[in-house]
Amino acid sequence: MSRLLYNLGVSLKERYERFGELSDISDAVSVLQKAVDLLPLDDPSLPSRLTSLGLSLMGRFVWTDELSDIVEAIPILQRAVDLTPETHPAMPGRLTSLGSSFRGRFKRTDQLSDITEAVSAHRKAVELTPNGHGNIPLLLNNLAVSLITRFGHMEELPDISESISLLQRALALTLPGHPAIHSILVNLGGAFTSRFNRTDSLSDITEAISALQQAVQLAPQGHSDIRVQLSSLGISSTRRFERTGDLSDIDTAILAQRKAVELTPEGHADLPGQLSSLGLSYTCRFQRTGVLSDIAEAVAIQRRAMELIPHGHVSIPSTLTNLGMSLSIRFERSGELSDVTEAISILQRAIELTPHGDSRTLASRLTNLGLGLRDRFEWTGELSDITEAVSAQRRALDLTPEDYSLLTNFAISLSRRFKLTGELSDIDEAISAQQKAVELIPEDHTDMPGQLNSLAVISNMRPRQTGRLTSIAEALLLQRKVVELTPRGHASLPPRLGNLADLLTRRFEETGELSDISEVIALHQRAIEYTPQGDINISGQHTKLGNAFNHRFLLGGNSGDLDDSIAHFKSEMAYDIGWPQDRLEAALACARSLNRHRPYSNDILPAFAIAINMIALIAGLERTVQGRYTKLQTTSGLALEAAAAACRLGRADKALEWLEQGRCHVWSQLNNLRTQLSDLRDHNKSLANRLEDISKRLELAGSSRGLPHTSMSMSEKISLEDEARAHLELAREWDEALQAARGTPGFEAFLMPPVCSTLLQHLPDSGPIVVINVDERRCDALALLAGMDTPLHIPLPNFSVEKGRAYRTDLEDQLYAHSLREPLKPKPERTCDEDERVLRVLRGLWEDVAKPILDGLGISKATETSTDLLPRIWWCPTGLLSFLPLHAAGIYRGADSESVLDYVVSSYTPNVAAITDRVKSQGPIAMKSGLFLTSQPDAPGTSPIPGTTKEVQSIFRKAEETGLRALKLEGDELGPGECLERMLEFSSIHLACHASQDSAEPLESRFLFHQGSLDLGTILKANLKHADLAFLSACQTSTGDEKISDEAVHLAAGMLAAGYRRVVATMWSIGDQPAQEVATNFYEYLFAHQDGAGGSGFDGAMSAYALHHAIQQLRRSQDDSERSLLTWIPFVHFGY
């Protein structure tokens, strides 16, 4: 019975080997197991039957990749060897089977001991077989395969060189027509490919392809291994393509690999690897031709490969790497941020799964991660991304310092960081690394032009930054050679033409040579012509060409050049898949050129409109709040420039819209996320709920997501990337939900930038909002009054940016002289008229800005006998004026002394919406009405402010006497967390403490307590729905950052954004005693002017008048000396 079962099992096994049916090999295993079980332990046929069973298990393992099969096969085959005498003729065959089983398990588990055992078993099999034996070629082949496999792990050249010698010997000993010959050829091709990967010798990869082509031709019709041979041929052809750039090789590779995939049954263990290799070939062809369908196919195939790989499989890291690289490369052409974000996450996982002993593989994957991070940096501008890229690629070079491709990628990343930081050590190291890369790459390598291109571009960066003129001629010679070596149709030709044009532009800027700029124009035209339709790399090319035509126009005055320049700027503006930054630059270049040369062109305002619209894309919700502020530095002043043009062209309405849309961008985004959805909920409840859910998560993601740093572990970085991907997905969902809302009848403009008519609704009745635009070209005020349907345009011809800068310098110098602020520059020399400087600033602001506005509004000076409340005014200054005390503008000495305080009660607002939104939602504070007070006189690391204790106690006592709901916690009684809880419980808060303004990271600005600190970012997360008044009795709580002055990045604006309707803050340091006096008088007035008939409620509706009163009280105790002025001026009111 055992014999019959054995014969059946062997037959099933042989049929499987012929036709590749999984059911046959599974049946063979089952039948052979029974045959073995029925055999006595001392039966002489047991070793042969164990061998057949072990080989069947191996066969099934090859099909299914089920680890248990190979784990079970090894002891069975080992037992067969142990039962076989060394002199037995079957011993070499059984050793071969055992060695193959060890090799199979190694491929699955990556355990080095397994491949060592495999080599040992195969070598002993060869040693036991006499020369001239017919099985010698097969035994040599098996030993060679194990050596090739070990080389893939250890990368020791003697292993791969020995394997090639063994296979060549095996081939020489095999008779033509022998069925084993094609298997030997396949392995020989694999060996040559492996050595090529290590040595980059072109002869090796050519030998590999020759051997594999012969193997395919010799394979029997329908043989199950033909797919493996086709796959190997495809891989080797791809490698030669990467070396030579011959398109026929990559086309051959893809054809062979597609055929291999078609011949591989679904569920076969080889299928994921074959798909991954095919996807890699499509990626390679895309990089050469730029055909977008290739990279789309590559990504789709790689995703399928990942879906098919069993959990824990050893090939997961390599497949992840291939998918990550395909996504990263697609991002370079598509600009889809989700691609590169996913790529980074995938590549990090691949690195985490890579054995640390595999130095070359780890180095390659680290370099790939660096590429992904660098790609994202090009979009985000985040220093953390390019720093992480440099760090990953430096680590890769530590592992394999002589790899030219790694050196080049490292050099490019360093050069990108240099562009951001200006750190000369980066560009010096980049040049050195790229020079070494050029020395290492073979002269005939297809990537030589790319290496020379990188050297030319990187070397040319240093003199631009240092002003040291080197020979542009040498750089031009090098770049011309790069262009000559790059074939037409190569995806890199357009950017290389662009680099040559950039060098010629530099020389033109030095020499003004007409022929240079004409060649620049021709080069950019060729680059545009050669860029495939839909390729994001077209982005920026039209702008450069437009600039070149503009240069030539300025040189020769030919109006046709100006026409061409504007036409190309418009082309860039219309290219909606391009980078937003490129479209913004094109729109600005167009608007500025027309402003200068055709000042009444109808194209000026549409160009500015596109530029303003790009701000929302450049600083979108997919970024962290801090990331948005960083990007907004690049657009600072844009809205002011656009508004100035609109005012000049008589479009005050457009000026107002752009000042609102282009300023306070982050606060506006936060306001949109917190928008009331009651009206939408009446029409579409599920959509409103969806928007509400997304907005909460998006707000949290924007303010809580951290940035990676080099000291983090890879798992920590992966976690952060997962957060980044989730954040990006939330931003996409938000955009989709917004579009859905705008498709609802009546909600077409839902959360769109407000038009002028909308901004003029819900204005306060008690006074105007005055937006003051301060631009290099002109200054204007736009007054918004309830009941008017257009802004009142008041030109300010006597004010200028130069005056504003001078006023600010004078004020800062005097604040420093009086120890009220840290200096912007070294302490100035004291002069005899220094006591006049603040007075001159205030007089200038009065005569040039405030008085013309008040006159334009028809507001007259209040009489001393009048008992009427003064009208209110909301100042909304821009640019440098944001740092000047407009509320105190006036003449303070002489018979004609007067000031803003004699005409109006002043408040400030960062933008119009901050007021109109409060007017729209003036609902009662209800159950949360009340006042919470705290003093923190001795915060660690700060100077004592003992007066805050007296200040708070005095206010609290008066609140109790008035019967208001109030709570006081001081010093150690209150931590930051409890303070936040009290802010949720009380509508108003009084913070008497030190504050820290962080201009580099605005959300890190904070209030300092005895037990820690409360930062603005944490307050913003709380979403204080019932907040009313915040009195910030702390220093410099309304001081912004000049780099992003129009973003109002100070604590006062932040408290408005957090939900408070009005905020009392300070422009600079305040004295202990004046602070007490102002606060006490402020609350006395406010307590006395509460609406209603008593009760414990409290609101700050009269807070602007209360502060006006308190300041006037303080002034009466002071003179008009500079020191006295600087005592009361810093107190300011923000909001409604």
Automatic annotation (TrEMBL):
Leader sequence segment: none
Coiled-coil ranges per UniProt: 670-697
Protein name (record): CHAT domain-containing protein
The CHAT domain, residue ranges: 840-1135
Keyword Coiled coil assigned: yes
Key words of the record: Coiled coil
Keyword Cell cycle: no
Cited Pfam families: CHAT
